[in-house]
Structure formats: C-alpha cells, structure tokens
C-alpha cells in the first residue's frame, strides 16, 4: 500500500495524549497512532451504516417483531464476524 505524506494540526490536549501513548510504548510513531485512529473510525462508520440500513429495511418491511435494539445487536454480531 502506498503512503501519502500529510501535515496535521492537533490541539495541545491531543498532542499530550499522543505523547502519552508514545511514551507508554503502545505506538512507535505519531503516524502509526493516527493511522489506527482512522481505521477505527472507518470501522465505526461502517458499523453505523450497516445498522442504519438494517433499521430502514426493517421499518420498510413492516414484518419484523424485532425492536431497534434487537436489530442493532444482530448487526453488531454480524459485523464482529466479518
């Protein structure tokens, strides 16, 4: 995978947290930490979209006895399997 160099700006509080993560040994570089944060955000957004689609499908079908919480749990379980 190719890499693109970026310059970002963070708050003092965010920088302190980043430096804390580096000092704890969780990450070797700022870039490694930022890439993981982006991957986690992408996964969360994918999960939200799957849940939204399942809720819309359920509402439009008019057939399901499932509550919105039941649907969220089912989609989360499916998401964890992938």
Q: What is the strand tally?
A: 0
Average pLDDT across residues? 91
Q: How many helical elements?
A: 3
Quick one: overall form?
elongated
How much helical structure, as a percent, in the residues? Answer: over 70%
Main beta sheet, described? none
* Domains (count): 1
Q: What class, by secondary structure content? A: mainly alpha
* Strand residue percentage: under 5%
Flag low-confidence runs.
none
Q: What is the chain-wise order of helices and strands?
A: HHH
**Radius of gyration from the CA trace?**
19 Å
* Amino- and carboxy-terminal Cα gap: 22 Å
Keywords:
mainly alpha, elongated, 72% helix, 82 residues
Give a description of the structure.
- There is one protein chain.
- It contains 3 helices and no strands.
- It has one domain (12-81).
- The longest helix is centred in the middle third of the chain and has 32 residues, at 30-61.
- The chain is elongated and about 50 Å long.
- It has helices spanning 12-24, 30-61, 68-81.
- It has 82 residues and is mainly α.
- The two termini are 22 Å apart.
